[in-house]
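Reposting from the mailing list since nobody answered there.

I have sequence plus structure tokens for a pair of proteins and want to know whether others read the tokens the same way I do. The first protein:
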Amino acid sequence: MKKTVDYQKLRGFNYTQPDAANDRVFWAEYHHDIVDRDMGYAERLHLNSARIFLSYDFYKENPDRFLANVKDFVQTAWKHGISTNPIIFMGFRFREDELPWSGFMLEAGLKPIYKTLEDPSCWYIGEKYFDDLYEAIGHEEGLLFWDIANEPGYTDNFVTWYDEEPSYVQDYQERPNMELLRYRQEKTWEIVRHFCRYVKSKDQEHDIGIGNIFIFETEPSRTAELVDVIVFHDYFPTRKRMRDALEYAKKMGEKYGKPVLDNEMCCLARANPYDMSIEMHDEYQIGWYLFELMIGKDMWSRVHGVVYPDGTVRDPSIVAAIGGFFRNRSETAIRSDVNQEDYVKRVSILAERTLHAARQNKGSDHSQDVENLLEVCEYAANLLEAGELVPMAYPPTAKIAAYRRQQNVDAMEIEDYLTELMGTLKKACHIIE
């Protein structure tokens, strides 16, 4: 029986086990208990679907273990009410003589394509891989739909040079060898279309989509007719640019009579903050998957991720946005006044007394001074953080906690820090002395 999916209601996340440096390591060193814990975090956030990156390389090395681990993931996630959107292919690399990615040499500014793409005779290996994957999880209740491939489109440094693409994506570099570019793009789409048809021939129960880099690959790839859901990724840096992409996505959905879905979004390094992206997708009623749930050891943790393994979070505004609450950026927003009840005056007096007492201590033991100084630092820091008067990338209270973990802290260093905090607080509250 065909599985029905309400794509508008998907509130998902991309997932890699946080103690793994990459997805091959994730499946090779899979830990049920870690996955169970992390799916618990997702459940608490009221997220409802996980997108996972499968590793053909590890499957080739140990198929039984790989398939058992993937099945355990799907079952474990489903126990928490989390469906699974597996990415079948992360690049098409079936030939034994494929060079490792690091071995590729640039050719006229364009990267070579995999040898597999130009050799259909080896594609049966990928078919066998899917057959095994389908046998392992194809009848699991938690399986939502298949993502044929992650960002398979061939690009020139993430520029497609398609007419559909906005000019601001292209204006950072010179136009490449277009004949070679188009040849390699079409070779890429040939194998993608092949596996769209193959997966549909084997599984009529579940939908398929393609995790396209951009929504404007939809028509040049000639895949819209083959998929059940039009999938794209969006990391645009302003509301206008994001709105243009979402409008285009809605237009594609209406043209082909298919739902649309963004299964990768949110990146601090691309001026694509979580709260903006979630708010915009919710406005357009387009389902989404955050990149990514966990902050761990992989290369993306500096710019992606919501939850640390211990359950703390990078930014509470992300959690608020997932819950549908967004920062007020309108004229009705009220600026906080942390000195409304003269607590800045109180901490100023306390800081002056504490600094004076520390200076008067001529002995060798300043441990009590350090404790007293840090107490006042925290008082000032809490006012600053409560009023959002300081950057929160490294909150003052985090620095204070780090000082408290240290042995033999220099009291004069803490005096300097307290003086700095008080200066920031008084300036923010317009206090002149």
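The second protein, same order (residues first, tokens after):
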Amino acid sequence: MLRSRSPIQALTPADEDAAIAVCARRPDAHVFVASRIQEGALRTTPGCLLGYADREDPLGWRSLLWTGANVVPVDVGPDTAPDFAQRLRRRSRWASSLFGPADDVLRLWTLLTPSWGAPRAVRGSQPLMSTTVPPSELGLALEERVRLARPAEVDAVVPAAAAMFTEEIGYPPYVGSVTSYRRSVAALIEQGRTYVLSEGPDVVFKADVGSVALGTAQIQGVWLAPHLRGRRRAVPAMAAVVEAVLRDHAPRASLYVNDFNAAARATYARIGMREVGEFATILL
């Protein structure tokens, strides 16, 4: 509902159902925001989700914008982007990234860049891929040793997670104390969302389920040890992860990948994932 003359409003717990319904218009694209809402963000973090209020929209909201550590748009079109950008410009740049559907992200960034300044990187084309078919039904072999990480293995998973982060983002996830980063890795493990393959004491493959909502589980943080790359290890390992995700988390598995990562794109296509959209990420 409208609460003032400005169309941009902070959503409250009373708006949860409507916000989830807005995200459900494109489940693959908006699972991140939907999962945060379902986890209770509107109750625990006031102001984390902004909406463009519209009395003519049956849901009451035309667009949404997540404003946590990352900025994530939900159906932010040409008509609503200027108002969201105006609200964001009131604060100095605080987020670590802006990501989501490419058109929404790039549209917002064009409006924000004069005040937020140059980004560290712009990844303007990241294919969004998904599947509902277990790889075993495609006749693919699964790496049987891929399994859920155990809570006692946090210290073995942290180096793999940190290596993935550093390769992807360009700098390490922590400097000095590992305590905070270790806590975030441990949280995913405790939730049963981190899959690993170990050889001896080392984790040589890792993938996380970062978000689950709207019948979709979004996979993130995929990493294979450099010495195993190019040795046909990625396909059976990822096939095992997708098989488990479809069985244990949601009927649809999705992820997004950099367009220049030809090896990863080929792996995901080989296990049956198909392009269903395009993301973009601005690293701030």
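Reply #1 (J.P.):
I read it the same way you do. The first strand starts at residue 8 and ends at 10.
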